[in-house]
């Protein structure tokens, strides 16, 4: 029993290899075309999403600005009301103090 006999098969011809290579390239081109189509659709969706997001952010900023302005106006009104209230309180205390002092003087001088 000797060494097994080597089977020599002829290599593929250059034409066969070239044909297989061309076929593979066609499949790759088809896949790349599909990928490009998907990317264009995704790109459009991303652009639309970015546009909607920008519009939402702009609306939110405007809303916050309006709210801040309203808040500022409310605080100004409250400050004015507080000043008026404080002025009225001062007048009330002055009247009370004047009345009390007048009563004390009236008793001291025996007017009452």
Task: Describe what this molecule looks like in 3D.
The chain has 112 residues and is mainly alpha-helical. It has 1 helix and no strands. The protein has one helix at 14-108. The radius of gyration is 47 Å and the shape is rod-shaped.
Helices and strands, in N-to-C order? H
Tell me how many strands there are.
0
Q: Report the end-to-end length measured between terminal Cα atoms.
A: 152 Å
Number of helices: 1
Write down the Rg. Answer: 47 Å
Oligomer: single chain
**Overall pLDDT level:** 87
Indicate the overall shape: rod-shaped
Structural class of the secondary structure composition?
Answer: mainly alpha
Largest sheet: none
Sequence stretches where pLDDT stays below 50 over 5 or more residues:
none
Fraction of residues in helix:
over 70%
Strand percentage lies at under 5%
Any descriptors?
single chain, 112 residues, mainly alpha, rod-shaped
């Amino acid at each position: 029993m000797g060494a097994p006999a080597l089977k020599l098969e002829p290599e593929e011809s250059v034409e066969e290899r070239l044909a297989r290579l061309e076929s593979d390239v066609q499949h790759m081109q088809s896949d790349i075309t599909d990928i490009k189509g998907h990317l264009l659709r995704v790109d459009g969706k991303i652009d639309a999403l970015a546009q909607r997001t920008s519009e939402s952010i702009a609306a939110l900023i405007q809303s916050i600005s309006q709210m801040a302005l309203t808040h500022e106006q409310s605080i100004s009104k409250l400050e004015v009301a507080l000043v008026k209230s404080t002025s009225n309180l001062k007048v009330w205390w002055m009247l009370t103090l004047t009345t009390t002092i007048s009563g004390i003087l009236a008793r001291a001088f025996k007017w009452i």
